[in-house]
């Protein structure tokens, strides 16, 4: 599968906000990995209240909904409440239209790195449910876009917020070759380069893996399970924090 075919307007999707993303990288690619290893067997979540999740970079919501359906299938007695956020209002509008009848799926337009997002979007969602944090935060194929646009410091801030907001983190980081593809796409479409990429402390897969390991650990996350790789050769990893 060629990532260069993700969208006819790929050059304008500077933040990974491809309008037809799930036509090219279906949510089922990730869910199958979680399903094969039974995600819930690796996490300790209370059965006497809702499992509340935050999906960052939800796009048009297909993967958010697929995760919801999968978790319900894992345990029909558990109740779920998922907030999906994305910085693209068009994508959020589509998600809302598509899942208008899903009361336990909420979609909001918000940028996780924006200083106003916690107070304007995330904390009100949690407070309305009598909570201070999420059980789980999911980040599927968004870390590269944060890294390219906000730099090493921005990626560190991102993981700091994930640590503040959730006990568990599911991460699907793009490999280094995707960074190269994204940069090349900007050049082909005569778009501004990712200036932050020039400031990275390294420029290969070994450095990138080590950097992500370093900053997840720094923010209290320990690797619990590698679920394998998707058809696009992207790892899906479960991290957890000490809840004591």
From TrEMBL:
<dbReference type="GO" id="GO:0005737">
    <property type="term" value="C:cytoplasm"/>
</dbReference>
<dbReference type="GO" id="GO:0008173">
    <property type="term" value="F:RNA methyltransferase activity"/>
</dbReference>
<keyword id="KW-0808">Transferase</keyword>
<dbReference type="Pfam" id="PF13649">
    <property type="entry name" value="Methyltransf_25"/>
</dbReference>
<dbReference type="Pfam" id="PF06859">
    <property type="entry name" value="Bin3"/>
</dbReference>
<protein>
    <recommendedName>
        <fullName>RNA methyltransferase</fullName>
        <ecNumber>2.1.1.-</ecNumber>
    </recommendedName>
</protein>
<keyword id="KW-0949">S-adenosyl-L-methionine</keyword>
<dbReference type="InterPro" id="IPR039772">
    <property type="entry name" value="Bin3-like"/>
</dbReference>
<dbReference type="InterPro" id="IPR024160">
    <property type="entry name" value="BIN3_SAM-bd_dom"/>
</dbReference>
<dbReference type="GO" id="GO:0032259">
    <property type="term" value="P:methylation"/>
</dbReference>
<dbReference type="InterPro" id="IPR010675">
    <property type="entry name" value="Bin3_C"/>
</dbReference>
<dbReference type="GO" id="GO:2000632">
    <property type="term" value="P:negative regulation of pre-miRNA processing"/>
</dbReference>
<comment type="similarity">
    <text>Belongs to the methyltransferase superfamily.</text>
</comment>
<dbReference type="InterPro" id="IPR029063">
    <property type="entry name" value="SAM-dependent_MTases_sf"/>
</dbReference>
<dbReference type="InterPro" id="IPR041698">
    <property type="entry name" value="Methyltransf_25"/>
</dbReference>
<feature type="domain" description="Bin3-type SAM">
    <location>
        <begin position="1"/>
        <end position="244"/>
    </location>
</feature>
<dbReference type="GO" id="GO:0008171">
    <property type="term" value="F:O-methyltransferase activity"/>
</dbReference>
<keyword id="KW-0489">Methyltransferase</keyword>
């Amino acid at each position: 599968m060629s990532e260069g075919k993700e969208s006819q307007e790929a050059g304008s999707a500077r933040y990974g906000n491809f309008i037809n993303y799930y036509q090219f990288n279906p949510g089922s690619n990730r869910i199958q990995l979680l399903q094969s290893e039974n995600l819930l067997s690796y996490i300790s979540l209370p059965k006497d209240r809702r499992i509340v999740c935050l999906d960052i970079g939800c796009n048009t919501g297909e993967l958010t909904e697929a995760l919801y359906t999968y978790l319900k299938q894992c345990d029909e007695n558990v109740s779920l409440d998922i907030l999906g956020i994305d910085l693209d209002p068009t994508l959020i509008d589509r998600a809302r239209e598509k899942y208008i009848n899903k009361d336990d799926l909420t979609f909001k337009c918000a940028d996780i790195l924006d200083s106003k997002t916690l107070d304007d979007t995330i904390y009100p969602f949690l407070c309305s449910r009598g909570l201070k944090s999420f059980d789980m935060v999911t980040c599927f194929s968004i870390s590269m876009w944060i890294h390219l646009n906000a730099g090493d410091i921005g990626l560190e801030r991102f993981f700091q917020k994930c640590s503040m907001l959730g006990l568990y983190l599911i991460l699907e980081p793009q490999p280094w070759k995707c960074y190269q593809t994204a940069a090349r796409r900007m050049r082909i479409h005569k778009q501004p380069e990712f200036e932050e990429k020039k400031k990275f402390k390294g420029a290969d897969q070994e450095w990138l893996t080590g950097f992500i390991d370093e900053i997840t650990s720094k923010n209290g996350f320990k690797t619990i399970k590698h679920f394998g790789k998707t058809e696009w050769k992207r790892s899906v990893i479960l991290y957890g924090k000490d809840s004591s």
